[in-house]
Amino acid sequence: MLALLCTAASQAAILHVKATHVSFFYDRFLVEADGGVRIETPQFAATGDAFSMDLKLNRFVLAGHVRLESPSGIEEGAALSDFLDFDRLYFLPVAEGADRWTFLNGDLAHPVKGRDMPGDAFALPDPIDTPPYLETNAAVIGARSFIRFGPSRVNMAAPSGSGYVTLPSYYINFSSDQHLGQNSLAGATFDATYAFAGNGQSISALHARYDTIDKTYLAFEQHLSGKHAYAVFSVNPVTRPSKFWNLLLSGTPSPNFQIRSFTQLHTFGSGLSEPSESSLFTTVQATQGFSGSFARLTAQFSNFSLLPVASDPSHPVIPNHPFQLELTAQQFDRRIGLSPLYEQIQYGFGYVHDAYGLQTLGGTPYTTIWNHELGLQLYVPSFKLTTGPRFYDSTFLTASVQKQRTWYSTPHYVDVASSSLGLSRAFSAHLNAFANYSVQNTADVYAHGLGSQVYVPFVPLAGGVPYPGYAAFNGTATFRTLALGAAYSNNGFFSASLLARKHDDFPKSVPDIFPDPPLDVLGRELLTGNYLGQPPYDITAAFRARIDPHLSIDVERSYYFHFGHRGWSPEFVIQLGP
Amino acid sequence: MIKIFAALIVVTAQLLDFEKNLVFFTSGDAFRVASNARIAGPAPAARRYVRATFDDAGRVVELDVSLKKFPAQGDLADVHRFAVAMSAPVPNPDLAPKTGAACAHARAGRFVTVSISVQVPPATPLTDTVYMTSDQSGWNAQAYRMDRIDPQHYRTQVRLQSGTQMQVLFDRGSLQSVEAAPNGIEEKPHLLCVGDEDAQAFTRTVYHWIDENSGGLQTVPQALPTPYNAVPFPNLPTPHPALH
Fold first, then answer.
1. Omega into A507 within 30° of 0, i.e. cis?
2. Sequential DSSP letters for B86-126
């Protein structure tokens, strides 16, 4: 994978700009330079009085007493304009009078004289009333990729105000390479990123972050991206004892094959001193695509403790180090004839091994468990039931049915069957609503009467009150959910959504019987899998509002109608974004 | 004796350069400046604005220079015939209208409301939030939050300038939960090209999420994998079991 990463990536054309004043306007992706401007590209160097580059249009103008130097010679002119995407350099010479020259495809020795030029070839932007985001005297521009500034004054109150801080360097990436946007950090309520170094294939960044668990802290992240691979490394938080050292690797040597890995080392200790707790896990996933299906092999190695003895009793050693392997094959989603129905089939094998034991049944300890699974999914993505006079007056039906059985080498199998039926309708161009009812059955079925050893019937007590209904639970659970949702969106400036759900489950939800699910760093419950005891009613409201052209705020919170100790969800989920 | 003066032509423009008695406008045209021309205001230089008066011979006889834009006056097309050029004009095949290219005919400068809809895999949990990320937002995975309009569809509306081209992907809050192609491989970004209609629709289908179907194996940063659990219910009541 690293070899793939090191293969030549597509190199962006590099432009060096130096001037008495270089300004960057973030809201317009505009670089303006004035006074003793000197630019250097791989093909030529030029000096002039004023420079302007639109990074999005990927073209620049150099104007005023221009001197163009190239291996073909020196030319003097009034202005030059380089349309980098098209490899066209337009030049206005003044040697023996005015003229119009066009250099084609980097050939500076043979100008095409008199050739018509685009009407806006030498357009300069009108004066900008707002203060620049950044002021410096040198910049390196990677065409359609990045801009890197030398020592800079950065306006933290841009675009409307002025509040400058001085930074030794500043880097902004605007490439179409999505892999440079990959991150290996956990979510955070707030994240201010300072990219202090980088080029077309790498970014080095410090993050100032806040979340509900670690509060305020710093993190570091390094990105690398090549033509067929990328890597991300991070330490998060750097300034707290509980540190996560993450490495994300991905390689796509062919359009039909991808291999990804994620490695996480966790240490608990001050700085780089010997940790009192340390664990490591690595997941490797290889996917091979075929003409109508794909196969995926996933392996995970876990070491819950890397330390031989616990140096701190509050961080005990967990000896387990399971190894898990999954091989699945999945068919593409296929429409059944001309019906609105789509189907998909999945089959897989699995293997788990842990020398310290995985499960004990009938007095037999199992250190290795094999499994295989078969799954089928049928769904209707969107079926129009009614049509009204306006484009949004239609009512749609969505439905899905899924069934999966997993057989284990231990004497049991797990069935998961779920079905869902929904109706949706738009009430205006801005307001949508839907209703959905879903049922999921999960059954863990043991042979030879062993089920009663795993799901021992008992009557739990909550606050001293017995709940005998739970004694009927033998490994078969049913989750029924009625959901009503509505979403309002107003041209991207404001959007809000509301999701109300009613759960009617077996075993029945009883406060303080079932352990709460863990929370993520944003304070949201991680309800993956078959969590028992969901509050019977919940309602989640979220909105996003644009504060200014560059900043929006997301706010989300759930309410559980005072089920047990839960009224509201633990925290507001608040995120600031672009 | 009656002396008849030809009408003077006045235009406003922005300067590229002024040297060797030639004045260059951002239109790319160069004009001769009369040796006795009146020049007022700050020194003519790149970026500055001018109000130029041409005599009937096509020479600039008056040049008012300003740091601020003058009210528009005259038409640069009317003085193009006075432009100085050593070479005869040659047609430029690059400027021929292009057909078939995305956004090729969009008139720039309009704000267009783009309604973006995406169909997601049926197994996407009801509580998941779907976002759109793009190269225009530095691939911030939570740049555009989408609202669920039914169990399998999300939608958002954004206002974008006509002619905008952006590469977009859909995700569930992180690029580690980004969409995957039908063959399970990471999806390539979709091109969203904004035309110049009043409103535009952009619809895509997410076939898979890259983090689905991982056999329950975990790739979530800052979350330790849970020990192997043979039971499919992660939170059975405790103390367990209390025999009765």
1. yes
2. SS--B--GGGSPP-S-TTTTPPTT-EEEEEEEEE--TTS-T
Whole-structure pTM value: 0.84
A419 with A400: CB under 8 angstroms? yes
pLDDT along chain B (244 residues), means of 10: 64 95 95 94 95 93 95 92 91 78 67 90 84 88 85 86 88 89 92 86 92 63 74 79 41
The full DSSP string for A502-568 is: EEEEESPP-TTTSPPPPB-TTS-B---S--S---SEEEEEEEEEEEETTEEEEEEEEEEEEETTEEE
Assess A545–B contact: CB distance below 8 Å, yes or no.
Answer: no
- Residue A414 touches chain B, beta carbons under 8 Å: yes
Q: How far is A158 from chain B (nearest CA, A)?
A: 17
Residue to test with chain A: of B50, B111, B146, B149, most A Cβ within 10 A: B149
Q: What is the pLDDT of residues A545-564, one digit of tens each?
A: 877 766 778 888 889 998 88
Which of A180, A257, A454 has its CB closest to that of B231?
Answer: A454
Which residue is closest to B215 within chain A, CA to CA? A326
A433 DSSP β-pair partners? A425, A486
Give yes or no for a cis peptide into A125 (omega within 30° of 0): no
Interval A422-432: pLDDT, tens = 999 988 878 88
Nearest to A23 by CA among A46, A53, A61: A53
Q: What ipTM does the predicted assembly reach?
A: 0.84
Query: Which has the closest alpha carbon to A439: A399, A499, A493, A386?
Result: A399
Please provide the DSSP assignment of A246-295 as one string.
EEEEEEEEETTEEEEEEEEEEEESSTTSPPSEEEEEEEEEEEEE-SSEEE
Res B1: pLDDT: 45
- Rounded Cα distance between A312 and A193, Å, is 35
Mutate to test the interface with B, among A105, A144, A235, A287 (most CBs of B within 10 A): A287
Interface membership of A341 toward B (CB under 8 Å): no
A211 vs B32: CA distance, rounded Å: 66
> Residue B20's closest CA among A539, A207, A99?
A99
Nearest CA to A195 out of A226, A174, A216, A164 is that of: A174
Residue with tokens 């672009």: A578
Query: How many angstroms separate the CA of residue A165 from the nearest CA in chain B?
Result: 23
Q: How many angstroms away from the CA of A517 is the closest CA of chain B?
A: 7
